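User: Here's a chain of 348 residues. Predict its fold as tokens.
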Amino acid sequence: MKEIVLKNRKIGGDNPCYIIAEMSANHGGDYDRAIEIIHKAKEAGADCIKLQTYTADTITLNSKKDYFKLNGGLWDGKYLYELYDSAFTPWEWHEGLKIEAEKLGLDFLSTPFDPTAVDFLDELGVEFYKIASFECVDIPLIKKIASKNKPIIMSTGLASLGEIEEAVEAIRNEGNNQLVVLKCSSAYPAIPDDMNIKTMCAIKDTFNVIPGLSDHTMGSISCIAAVALGAKVLEKHICLDRSIETADSVFSMEPDEFKKLVDDVRACERALGKVSFERSEKEKLSLSSRKSIFISKDIRKGEVFTEENIRCVRPGTGLSTRHYYDVLGKKATTNIEFGEPLKWNMIE
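Assistant: Prediction complete.
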């Protein structure tokens, strides 16, 4: 089965799902809060903390023309520059946040949104990259990222099949085949009805990539469904408290919710287990509750076994029910009382 290595962890195959806690704008411009989010992500059981690396000037233009004004949705009425200027993570924070994460044993990941961010993260020693859904069609950026020859996780919200194909080809044409592709619904928040998680399986089969899910729905159900279908990477936003309003807080998980998500994912993986027809030790305790053949009416020695005097009932201490038709018509070797389990030595 296909595997890649993200830092020192194998992703794909039979390995556990890799869980990314996305901080995004939830620091709200407060460095200490960003540090606290990293600690909460670690406590919740995340494998990785993720940032976004851009400034308002690297991602858009400072223009008040209508083209740059958002209409509808969570950020209705805001200009792009205004939104990103309030949400970005200062680049001078990155090194300190990376050191803190790695000190705790968390991987550190970020999404670059322009070529200067790609180089910045490379110089910082970030060992793999994330491509955001909206940048899935930015082929020059994708080629720049792929040229670093580091593993890539790419989200595909909004992308058509053809656009995903173009992005995957751009990465592979740079000689980079270390790719995880995440199904995503780019709505904030998304709703389960729009997730179409089965598409994740089609992406895996079509492009021979490691599959996963970037999830903006509320709760854990979409992530659990994705893991059951084979997701090997999950990405979910984390915040300290949704009452602390940021650009992303509305659709982010609080730490206790994120911990429940991680616990549920690990329980789901244990439940999926492996292909096995063996009984577990606990299951063996239930064998006695199977049906077997019992005497349902007193029988004298020499009397014939019939449908009236033997029955298949619980518990399982008598002769197996598979022998019911073999027993009918045969004679009893001894007197047998009602309620006794039938044994071979009772049959002529």
